Amino acid sequence: MSLVVQKYGGSSVASAEKIKSVAARIKRRADTGDRVVAVVSAMGDTTDELIALAKQISDHPQAREMDVLLSTGETQSSALMVMALHALGVEAISLSGAQAGMRTDSVHRSARILAIEPTRLRDELERGRVVIVAGFQGLTEEMDVATIGRGGSDTTAVAFAAALDARCEIYTDVEGVYTADPRVVPDARKLKDISYEEMLELASKGAKVMAPRAVELGSVYNIAILVAHSTKDAPGTLIHGGADMEGFNRVRGIAHDMDVAKITLRHVPDRPGVAAEIFQPLADAHLSVDTIVQNASEDNLTDLTFTLAKGDLPRALPHVNEIAKRIGAKEVVADERMGKVSIVGTGIQSAPGYAARMFRTLSDAGINIEIISTSEIRITCIVPEDRVADAVRALHTAFELEKDAL
Fold this sequence. Notes:
CATH topology of the domain at 3-250: Carbamate kinase
Structural class: alpha/beta
Low-confidence stretches: none
Strand content: 25-35%
Largest sheet: 8 strands, mixed
Mean pLDDT: 93
Number of strands: 18
């Protein structure tokens, strides 16, 4: 008998019939003798609908109250799932994140997990119950509900798997991790396995199948994560820390992200400390910056460009305009019509030819590159938003990712 933590996403529990289907799947697993903890997301588009409802009430709802509101989506799913399990004769109980023992800091809407105290959860498992945990939420030191951001149910599942020393399975509406988004590249290939590092780069650069924070936790605590379809029995993709099992093409996948805005500060004084003066206030405002590029200095002036999520642009611009005045920059230019495309694979930086092939492929497709950034296992290009899909398809073909591994 083993202990498994499963996660079911919003699309998997989007209706009463889907909840019943997932409950039947959980029952089959419990019938094998495994002890099951299942983390559930809010049903379908519930979170987006709650956000829209809040916006009808207030243009600037308080973050604490938003967390109280948004946490109800997962609570609803967990209660309904237990009702479905009871109808199948399965002993089960629903727990909120707080009841299950998730403790977070007090940064509402994007809280960090401080600890997992799973005493209640263990007690319920010892009673022979299936435990359904509301994902995406925890409890602060002030005894307030805090949510942990988009993809929080993935992160919740991996965190509890680490705390319980359990297996982790993420069930979603795709069969695993693909070489590219199958909606953009119809002949994208499902991977049998992928390393934590490669998956983290794919997730952080736009692949939606896993939340980056969940992959980080899996890596830190060495929790292998299976990603599979919630209604099919097809083999999924294993995210792990072992050796590459899939051949010699160093490019394992292509990620893309349409949620990119670009801000440029023109004619920034080129002096020590100016970068800190720009980015510290953004960090204090909990604004996450992605790619940063600074041009070569001319007459002790330089242009500095960085990217961030489009949704953060309205909140960031007042800060950036104030910063520009304070440091003496000439102007601030913003563009939200950007996207990014990345090739990811262990060793692509150390092997010759990958960057050149990427740039040549985009050039041949007539796609202009605005910004380039790299890591040890990734090359990312910021390109116009309306050319992102073309870029993904061209690169997938250029690196022959549709072919099975040797």
